[in-house]
Amino acid sequence: MATKTALITGGTSGIGKATAELLHSRGYRVMVTGLGDLDNAALPADVTAVEANIGSLTDIDQALDQAREHLGSLDLLYLNAGLPRPGLSIESTDEATFDALFDINVKGNFFTLQKALPLLNEGASVVFTVGAAEGLGAAMTAAKGALLPLVCSLAIELAPRRIRVNAVSPGVVDTPAYGKMGISPDTIASWGEGVPLGRVGAPADIAEAVAFLASDAAGYITGDNLLVSGGIGVHARAM
Questions:
Q1: What is the pTM assigned to this prediction?
Q2: What beta strand segments (E) does 101-187 contain?
Q3: pLDDT of 52-110, one tens digit each?
Q4: Which single residue of 35, 104, 131, 231 could bond 196 by disulfide (Cβ 3.0 to 4.6 Å)?
C-alpha cells in the first residue's frame, strides 16, 4: 500500500502536534506548519516543520510549495491553525481583534484549502478544527461558526473528486495555548467539573477523531461535524 501523506496547519503544539505524532506512528508522511521556534517543537525527526502564518497568502503559497516538494500530494489536509481568543465579551472586542479572528480562522483556512486543491489526491480528506461554541465569546463564536456552513458547501463542491470535507469540534482541551494566556493548570483541570465525562480533554482525544475522519473507515462521511467534547452540550440537546 502507498504511504499516506498529511499536511497539518498549526501542527507544532497542542492538538496539531498530537495529530502529527499519531499519524506518523501509523505510517503517514507528515508535514506541519507553525510559528515561532520550530526547532523546539519536539516532533519526530522525519516530520517536516515549516514556519507559516496562514493569515498571509504568501506564507500559504510557500508552505504548499514545500508540501509539494516533501510530500508530492496530499491524502489529508488538516486545517487546524487558528487564533484563540476565547471568552472575549462584546464590550472587550476591538476591530483589530475581530478582523484578526476572521483573517486567520476563516480567510486563512479558506485560501489554504483553495491553494492546496491541486495537491489533494482523489479520495483525500479535509478536516477543519471548529470548536464547541460554549464559552468562546461572541466574536470567536462568529468566526468559528462561519466554518460550519463552509464545510457543508465544500463537501458538496468537492464530492465529485471524492474529496471528503468534515469538521472536528473539540470541547475544553488542555493545550499550551491556555498556559500562554496565563491560565493555571489547576484552573484548567477545574473546568472538567462541568464536563459530563468528568475531565478536560487531551490533545490525543482530538487526534484520534481526526485520524478516524481521515481513514477509510470514514469513507462515507462528508459535510459533517464531529463533536469531541466529553458530553458538553448533551443536556441542552436533550431538553
A1: 0.93
A2: 120-129, 164-170
A3: 999 999 999 999 999 999 999 999 999 999 887 766 788 888 899 899 899 999 999 99
A4: 231
Burial 18-57 (b: 16+ CB within 10 A, else e): bbbbbbbeeebbbbbbbeeebeebebeeebbbbebbbbee
* Residue 87 Cα distances to 93, 101, 197, 203, angstroms: 10, 13, 23, 20
**CB-based contact 7:116 (threshold 8 Å):** yes
Alpha carbons 146 and 102: distance in angstroms, whole number: 9
Residues 6 or more apart whose CB falls under 8 angstroms from that of 119 comprise 7, 64, 67, 68, 71, 72, 73, 74
pLDDT band at 235 (very low <50, low <70, confident <90, very high): low
Task: Report pLDDT digits (tens) over 172-226.
Answer: 888 877 777 778 888 888 888 888 999 999 999 999 999 999 999 999 999 999 9
| CA 132 distance to own-chain centroid | 13
- The Cα-based distances of 68 to 8, 12, 110, 138, 148 in angstroms read 14, 19, 19, 38, 28
H-helix or E-strand containing 6? strand 5-9
Place of cell 462561519: 146
Cα separation, 77 vs 16, in Å, equals 12
